[in-house]
Structures are given as C-alpha cells and as structure tokens.
Design brief:
By secondary structure, this protein is an all-alpha fold. It has one domain: Fumarate reductase/succinate dehydrogenase, transmembrane subunit (3 helical TM bundles of succinate and fumarate reductases, Up-down Bundle). Helix content is 81%, strand content 0%. It contains eight helices and no strands.
Amino acid sequence: MADNREFFYRRLHSLLGVIPVGLFMVQHLVVNHFATKGEEEFNQAAGFMASLPFVYVLEIFIIFLPLLFHAIYGLYIAFTAKNNVGRYGYFRNWMFMLQRVSGVITLVFIAWHVWETRVQAALGAEVNFQMMENILDNPFMLVFYIVGVLSAIFHFANGLWSFCVSWGIAVSPRSQQIVTYATLFVFVALSIVGLRAIFAFV
C-alpha cells in the first residue's frame, strides 16, 4: 500500500511539474519577453494577465496549490534520493543530481520572486516595467535572477525527460535519446527567451 501511494505521489509530482506549473512558467517567460519590445508593450501584456477573470481563483488552484505540492514533495525526493554521481559518472546520474539541486535553487528563487512581485502587488504596488527595472538595477539581484531563471528552465526541461519516461511516453533507449535532444532544445530556446527578458529591464 505504501509503495502504491508513493508511486502515485511521484506520478502526480511529475505531472504537476509539467501541467500546469511548467506551462505557466513558459507563459510567464513569454509575457516577460514583451519587455524586449519596450516598456509600454510589457505593461500592456502584464496588465492583460492581471485583468483576467477570476485571476485569484486561477492563481490559487492552477498555480500556487500545484506548485506547493510539487515543491514540498520535490524537497522530500531531493533529500531522500541517493545520488551516485561519485560512483557512476553517467550522464543521466548527473542529470538526476542537477535536477534536485536546480529544484532547491528554483524554489528559493520563486519564493523571493513572488514576495517581490505578487505579494507587493497585493499590498498595493503595481507590477510593471519600472518595478522590474528597479529590482534588476542591483547587480546582486541581476545575478540572482539569471541563476534563478536558468535553474527554473533547466528543472522544467530536464523534468520533461523524467515525465516522458515515468508516464511511458519514452520507453526504449532510442526514444529516450530523442527526448534528451528535444529537452535540450527546450532548455536552450527558453533560456534565450528568459535571458533576453531579464536584460531588457537592465
């Protein structure tokens, strides 16, 4: 019974990391990328997202609750998993370890980012181009955001591989290799989008 419950939790953890959390991250990166077109374009895109109907319900049930479960159970996996990089220096073992490390970094980054933006918005601040410009004006925060965004993108891209394997989409070695290349492309493409958005505020 315990094994079945853990199997279910791991499958749910994997699913929520892609849908809806991963898809939200991609959407968030796309909205932020509007900053490359200028302050007005970004403010319009951010304003549109903030004015969606039932935005608080969507945030709670589509973003925060799934993210909370994924984060808590992810920490459990990270701190109970046995990393064997030292004994077996295979590519997938390194990806296994980096997935756990990037997950912890991403959690810290998301918590801080939510505090600086969403919580401040609830307290009356306006989430706009100037807010992000002020945040990233600090060199330490600029580096922090670069590391955080790249960690989140890596965690999502590498998590896609795990999702495809655990859900039986990529079973054979050949299919897993194809998914490896596909997720590498996802990481590079989203990293370009994320970094361009960050430097558009600088």
